[in-house]
Design brief:
Elements (H helix, E strand, L loop, with lengths): L3 H23 L26 H54 L3 H4 L3 H8 L4 H12 L7 H9 L1 H4 L2 H12 L15 H14 L9 H11 L2 H11 L3 H7 L3 H18 L1 H10 L7 H7 L7 H14 L2 H13 L1 H5 L3 H9 L7 H8 L11 H12 L1
Length: about 375
């Protein structure tokens, strides 16, 4: 008879063998490539009637067709993977070259070169992330003449001068801004900088205060520059005519922008215009949110940053060109959607939206025509409505 220690060792050994056998039996057969090599044709089991020659030939043919289909799919997928790798490599090389060009030649002479065709063409291709913040600061410019000490003073006066309700709203909205990034969450590294930028603006512009949607604009800026620069750019951006009208809830002026946009929609995409009219999907159901956040909430972040690049270059007009570009890109899908589905779709655009496709679509759209500027169109509509 085994003593207790021997019995325990034997039991442990039996348990190990049991789990080893179970693990081995549960492991799938290993093949270097799952697919064509995993498809093995077996003859009919001995306890079943044998196949006829006709059946054998038929099944062998089907088996070969399946193998060939799998091989073609694997070949196609491998080509697609290689193509994407090559495209990523080319894009990385392009960004590196463009970054050096911007850093060494354009940024030191920004005022003289910013309006040249070569620089505009380079700008359209998308700014390298490494210099994006610097270009934005120069492109947005500081028309309001805000100095660094104003930001510090606003932060010092924050507790005394800011409405408590604004602080609560800011704290809540910041934690819900770009949640997938995690950097703006309660314990994230950019939570406090973004809250400071938004709170400082409320002190600086108490007549505007905080409006939901501002957190996305502040977040995009905070991701690309230091808080004091983000505050200066934020204040100047919101002083643009279109954003000033949106965030001060100037419905009369927003109706002017809606009318200009609707005319452009009719001229560029008459089918979409007619469908939206029949379904009741007016611009305030989707365009206002796009303007509020400069597309940061509706688009994947990398695509939104590309839109920001050209918005910084071209101003308010590009907000409406982008809207037309989005509708043009998804025209076929939108024509089959009712009001509810259309509004939901436009509120959050597909995650697979690609900047290249979008900008190709935007390039086909025109808001202005006949040499008339965007601001002239807005002024003319305002004059007619007055």
């Amino acid at each position: 008879m085994l003593d207790k220690s021997e019995a325990k060792l034997l039991t442990l050994e039996l348990m190990k063998n049991f789990f080893r056998r179970r693990e081995n039996s549960s492991k799938p057969l290993r093949n270097d490539r799952i697919g064509s090599l995993g498809l093995i044709q077996h003859s009919r089991p001995s306890y079943l009637p044998a196949k006829t020659l006709e059946e054998e030939i038929k099944h062998q043919k089907q088996h070969n067709e399946i193998l060939e289909s799998v091989r073609r799919r694997e070949t196609r997928e491998e080509k697609e993977r290689k193509k994407k790798q090559e495209e990523r490599h080319k894009e990385e090389e392009r960004l590196l070259i463009d970054s050096r060009l911007w850093t060494n030649e354009i940024l030191p002479n920004f005022k003289e070169l910013k309006s040249s065709k070569d620089v505009k063409d380079l700008w359209w291709r998308g700014l390298p992330p490494s210099i994006r913040g610097r270009v934005w600061r120069l492109g947005i410019s500081n028309r309001l003449g805000i100095e660094d000490h104003i930001y510090r003073n606003c932060l010092n006066d924050m507790r005394e001068k800011i409405n408590h309700e604004f602080l609560v709203a800011i704290k809540l909205d910041v934690s819900r801004t770009f949640p997938a990034l995690c950097v703006f969450q309660e314990d994230g590294p950019l939570n406090e900088p973004l809250r400071s930028v938004l709170a400082a603006y409320c002190v600086h512009r108490p007549e505007v205060g905080y409006v939901q949607g501002m957190s996305f604009i502040g977040a995009i800026l905070t991701l690309n520059m230091e808080p004091n620069d983000a505050f200066i750019c934020f204040s100047n951006l919101l002083d643009n005519p279109c954003h000033r009208a949106a965030f001060t809830l100037n419905q009369t002026q927003m109706n002017v922008y809606y009318k200009v946009y609707t005319t452009a929609l009719l001229n560029n995409l008459p089918k979409v215009h007619a469908h939206f009219v029949s379904s009741g999907l007016s611009p305030d159901f989707y365009l206002l949110d796009w303007v509020y956040t400069i597309y940061a909430k509706a688009m994947p972040l990398d695509v939104a940053c590309r839109v920001w690049d050209i918005f910084v270059r071209d101003g308010d007009e590009f907000l409406f060109r982008t809207a037309l570009g989005v509708l043009n890109l998804y025209q076929e899908e939108l024509l089959g959607m009712d009001f509810v589905r259309g509004a939901q779709f436009l509120t959050r655009l597909p995650e697979n939206l690609q900047a290249g496709q979008l900008f190709e679509s935007i390039g086909m759209m025109r808001v202005c025509a006949g040499g008339v500027s965007f601001q002239q169109m807005v002024d003319e509509v305002s004059r007619r409505n007055s």
